[in-house]
Amino acid sequence: MSLADKLNYYLQLSQALIKLRFHNAGEGDKAFFRVLNREPAILLLALHDRDFSPLHEAIGPKPGYFLFNLWGSRETGRSIRKVVQFVRRKNRRYPHHSYVFLCNSPEEETLLKDAGLEAVLCNHNCWIDEHLFRPDPAESKRFDAVYDANISPYKRHGLATEIQNLALISFRHPVLFNHGYAQKVRRELDHAHWHNDPLADDFSFLTTEQVVSILNQSRVGLCLSAVEGAMYASIQYLLCGLPVVSTASKGGRDVFFEDEYALIVADDSRAVASGVREMINRNIPPDAIRNRVIERMTEHRQTFTDLLQSIFDRHQSGQLATDVWPEIFRHKMGLAYLPFDQGIAELRTC
């Protein structure tokens, strides 16, 4: 990227974050969360800018455990300090409730533990349901590569310009969508096959079934951001048996990568295109990729069930995490953007 491109990128990103903060200010009574267990109270939540006091109040003097998925990257000192401040605010009012952070990368886990916080390495990509995303030999390969990505500057679509036979899946964030960036990308990638054009009047999100079909028509999956969270699309590629071409990144998507089926390339469109050609030539059996990735996902799920079991044992609840897991597992763990009132009602039925 040129200096001008970098400056424009950070300008667009800062504008998007300002929009998001204003949006969040008006959404204080909602959050991404789910009640997993009532006694002891265990909640799974996304760590974002919210005051969770209503949920603390609903649990009251009883033990409560808030298990936070980390969305976005927390691999800087500044981001860790914000998490520490978040925990301190909780401790002033609810010291008997515990926060545990589910980290997407070893770096996040180390930084949070060094800051005195409770953290485990449990990458949220392990929540993807492998029964939904799988190879389909009935599909014919039509595209050399596919990029499933939010239309936002951090996704760096311009790095895919040298790939001639390219499929694109768009996500239009309800707050962060950048119309100017979308126009720029649409021009740069006019040769690509847009399965849902972000600028179309009739734009719609694709169903899971449609996404799986497109992935199975593609030979390689692309991951082109420099910093984000663990990137659900990356694990969906792999579960469908696609090898991955990725730039170096922070945020944890590479936790499930192995050299055989994931190639890290320079931040250069020619390097990305060359990487795609290399991965196509490797001709790796889709099931070999999928099976190895599921092994890695299982390790992270085991970390989570071990955490649950430690909580159950601490309170002598008599529960077995291995029995609870089949009841609570859902695609992306069923996290939904819910009003606090819904969680309060569940917690108060204890």
Describe it:
It is a single chain. This protein folds into two domains: 152 residues, no CATH class; 150 residues, Rossmann fold (3-Layer(aba) Sandwich). About 4% of the residues have low confidence. The strands form three sheets. Strands 5-4-3-2-1-12 form a six-stranded mixed beta sheet, with helices on both faces. A three-stranded parallel beta sheet has the order 6-7-8, with helices on one face. A three-stranded parallel beta sheet has the order 9-10-11, with helices on both faces. It has eleven helices and twelve strands. Helix 2 runs parallel beside helix 11. It is α/β, with parallel strands linked by helices. The longest helix is centred in the C-terminal third of the chain and has 29 residues.
Give a quick set of tags describing it.
2 domains, 3-stranded parallel beta sheet, Rossmann fold, 350 residues, 12 strands
Question: Helix-strand pattern, N to C?
Answer: HEEHEHEHEEEHEHEHEEHHHEH
Q: What is the β-strand count?
A: 12
Q: What proportion strand?
A: 15-25%
Low-confidence stretches: 15-27
The SS-based structural class is alpha/beta
* Average pLDDT, all residues: 92
- Determine Rg (CA atoms, Å): 21 Å
Count of helical stretches: 11
Major pleated sheet: 6 strands, mixed
What is the general shape? globular
